[in-house]
Amino acid sequence: MELDTLKDAFDRVVKRQKLSSFRSQEIVDQVGHEIEQALAKIKAINDPLSPVHLKSILSELKLKLNTVGPLNLLEGLQKERNINLSKYPKLLEKSFSPDISKAYRDVDFDFHLVNQIVANHFYQQGLFDLGDCLIDEAGEPEAIAIRSHFLEMYQVLEALKVKNLGPALNWITLNREKLNQNGSMLELKLHRLQFVEIVKKGTKADALSYARTHLAPFASLHMNEFQKLVVCIIWVGKLDSCPHAELMAPTHWDEFTQEIIKQFCSLVGQSYWSPLSVAIAAGIKGLPTLLKLANVMAAKRQEWQEMKQLPVPVELGKELQFHSIFVCPVSRDQGSEENPPMLMPCQHVLCNQSIMKLSKNTSRTFKCPYCPTEASAAQCRQLHF
């Protein structure tokens, strides 16, 4: 199931569709042009009832339309488009397994935790009615604790849509100390947005007054940014010529909105990406490997459901790696605080339990599984995640 391959095939279908539509419109326009020219000639005839003139004009129109051959051209374009469209569903059927339940394994779920994760996802997406309904039906009243935080966040976001920075400023002011500890520049970015709006719509005096009151406190730490903003005052009324016109870009509002969301989530102990969306993304990416493994296990009559650990790694990409993971090449166990990775003198790494077994509980030296070097357990150094 190569998603990149499917995307490329989809893009080809879209490209063919657009080209077909464009060429079809060209043909229709050409036919319309020829008809309009014929009508203009008919109107220009001194004796419009003369059958000779009318016949010659219509004969000429018929000849031109036959030369263009609009029906054949349109049928050809439709045939090419249908060929591409028919190939894409076949590729989908080939790429996607119709029965993904083969990769399913009986896992003990903490349904209390799952309900909380789903409810939090709804709240984080602003779907408060759905979150409330789930909590009510699942009987998870404690999950509602996070609701007020996300409700406050969406009130701020709704205000930002109409460029009202008041609610955002109130929230930043209340949480200034925590935001500063996170190294956030939200307050400066907020005042920059407000200042730019004044520069766009107000006067030089208004802009200067706002800069003195709200931007000056940031000058010592952000002098370069402060200087660029102050220079904009000179160009009030002629901002097209301002050397720092990039400060006026509307994308700064979108960036500020995303930063608000990230900081909101951080302060309430939530991830910017909801755990539910991360789990689904990981499942989609790992599903091809799991399906292949399930098929192999079925062919070998091995019990897929009874496996405690997957025999092969599932590559999820760096975007889904949130902490270091080490799998011992000898035992295939994943490193943990109880079984940490140990660096040998030869720079190879094994888990502590593997080293203990190889060294017979530290009493002997042992040979590295990957090179001729011999070492003892005492010579191995623990690595930290």
Automatic annotation (TrEMBL):
Name the lineage.
Eukaryota, Viridiplantae, Streptophyta, Embryophyta, Tracheophyta
The name under which this protein is listed is: RING-Gid-type domain-containing protein
UniProt cross-references to Pfam families, sorted A to Z: CTLH, zf-RING_UBOX
Q: What is its main location?
A: cytoplasm
Q: Which Gene3D superfamilies match?
A: Zinc/RING finger domain, C3HC4 (zinc finger)
Q: Which domain of life is it from?
A: Eukaryota
> Would you name any one GO CC term?
GID complex
ZnF RING-Gid-type span: 328-371
Q: Which GO terms describe its biological process?
A: proteasome-mediated ubiquitin-dependent protein catabolic process
Q: Where is the protein situated, by its record's location annotation?
A: Cytoplasm
Under Gene Ontology molecular function, one entry of this record is: ubiquitin protein ligase activity
Indicate whether Zinc-finger appears among the record's keywords: yes
Q: Where is the RING-type domain?
A: 328-371
| SUPFAM superfamilies in alphabetical order | RING/U-box
Give the originating organism. Answer: Gossypium barbadense (Sea Island cotton)
